Amino acid sequence: MPARGVLVLGALALLCSLALSSDVDFKERPWLRRGPPRAIRRPPPKRSSTPAPAEPVSVTVLVSGEVAIGVSHQENHDDEAGFDALDFPPAPDVSYSLGAPLNASSQDSQATAAVKIPLDFGGERPDIVTGQLLSDVPISLELPAEVAEQLDLGSGLAAANTTGTRRRLSEDQHELRRAMLEFHGTRRSLGEVRRVLDLINAVQSKGLQGAFFETKATAQGTGNKAGYGGVKDLFVVGGQKVQVSSLVFLMHAPSCGRQLALSASQFADGFFANPSTGFASVERYHTVCSWGKFTYPPRVTNRVYGPIDIGACRGSERSMGSFDVSSQCGDREFSALMDKAKAWLSRTEPDTFRRWKEFRRIHIVFPLADTPECGFGGIADVGCPGGQDCFSLVNLRPTAPGVQPVLNMHELVHNIGLAHSGRRVCDSSGRCAVDEYGDPTCIMGRGIPTRTTASYVCLNAPQAYKGGWANAIEEIDYRLSGQTEKTYQLPSMATTDRNFIRIVLAPTRTQVNLGGGTVKWKQAAFFVSYRAKQPGKEYDNGLNADYDQRVYVHFWDETQDAVSSELGNPPQLWQVLDVPVNGRAPVMSAGTESRYRFGALPNVFEYRDPRDPRARTIVRIKSKTLDKAEVSVCYTALTRESDGGDEACTDGKDNDCDGLADDEDPDCPDSAAVQRRSPPPPPPSRTFKRPPPPSPPPPPKKKWNRGH
């Protein structure tokens, strides 16, 4: 046996003997004790490399095109007791888009689909108007985080996946990834941007049943103002008559419950004048309120088609890509309806389709989805862009009674280039704001006729002036060119097309550059008008009794420049005036929503010049009849008549504009008013002449006693 084996056996024998020995003391043999085993130190497990959460990825590109601005018409706001004076109904939705023909060189380009991209200005209303041409507009195209992750793109467009492997991309994903890598910081056509927006939507919704995403381009500015394409002959200029032409399409989608109850002939009977019915019509609205300057002739130059079944409620169209009319009501849906109308007309009336550009407006009637977002009554371009289709849409509910001429007229007037009609409201603390819909006397505000199917409410004075439908009886400088007071016989707007006073607050008009040598002219002014219904006349015959036979003071800085209005700057109703009755102010309260009551109506409106706090322009209603009101306009820098010196009390003028002149004004010390007001002096005391009293008798002589 080898020596190593002997040693091992010996060691084992020794251990066994020790274990069996009963007198072994382990405590005395420390070399036999062992501590607890040491913890084994192992290296920490390797963490699996998980990628950071995906983040949205965006690129910035520069685009050019023609502006189209649309604004929706909101339903009436519920009247609530105890409302805040400045808690207005929600502002209408405003949509912005850039558009260009797909084939600008084609003579029929307007009859084919024009590519458009929606722009999101983050809730702001930029200083642009419909028809304006913009170049190098910086827009941001954002990939949602989940799409960026699918495309393996991180911030800065770097690859988010660092493992060196690439997931397999679909054709759409591959095209979108390449575009995002190539687009940043470059100029791109609207068609290229439109394609990217469609790809983002397609990739985002892939595999999600029923999902739909509204992808917009976020505008980071308005770029360069390159010119003005102009609006389509919709303003009346110099009194020259304008004849509107349009194609009206009744459209519906029965496959998803969006169905119209009206036929084309029923709609046409309410849309165009039919004296036998006595109903109000869109045609008569144009003729009556414009004094025959702006006409809407039926049948030939304005045609009605439908109802047209659009087929599937979801799909994709050429202009703006994917749409879903069953649940959405955005630019994509409106453009899809326009594309479908063109396709239908090209099949059924190819000759009319070839004349598409001859028809200035495309008016669509469609029952939008029953969702809160689609609760508006209609939407329209504010002004008709010169190089694109002029669009308006009325949301005609399946249960809606008849044609609704007021709603149709409201949207078609937007196409002229007119904004909403607002009202300036101030609370008890002096804070003021503008309610964009707040004018209850104008169809572009809350002007609803008393009988919506048989009567009319027309435009207020500034809107009628802007559209060229009415003109001033006189335009005056607010300082009256050195005069103190002027008095006017102001006719009712229902009696003549020269029917308001325009008081300009700036000596000259200012220019707003639209680019390309085109300017927009502005001049701040007050418009003073008298609204009174006239027997046997349709103009304003639907005016509510609270608004009848009263003087209105509006403010606006738009002029008759044939350029669309700025949406963020509507005309504002500042004051309603009336003649006192038995020394008391009339109260506007009966039959109107409390939000649109004006309370006790004064007979005076006062404007203080911010450049000179002493300077005041005062409008006063002195009297009124059925067809006119006597109104004075007065300018002063005096607080009291006597502040003008002795001459101010003897010159026959009302120098402090309080309605009293010279000796009628108590400010003058020798005025008749002061004399009438002072008590008579006491009568002089009477003096009686009497003879002097007799002299008293001399005192008696005193006797002396000598014995003393």
TrEMBL record:
SUPFAM superfamilies: Metalloproteases ('zincins'), catalytic domain. Residues 34-56, 642-708 are annotated as: Disordered. Residues 35-45 have a biased composition (Basic residues). Residues 1-21 form the signal peptide. Pfam families: Peptidase_M11. Keywords: Signal. Residues 247-563 form the Peptidase M11 gametolysin domain. Residues 678-699 have a biased composition (Pro residues). The keyword Signal applies. The keyword NAD does not apply. Residues 657-668 have a biased composition (Acidic residues). InterPro entries: Peptidase_M11. This is Peptidase M11 gametolysin domain-containing protein. The lineage of its organism: Eukaryota, Viridiplantae, Chlorophyta, core chlorophytes, Chlorophyceae.
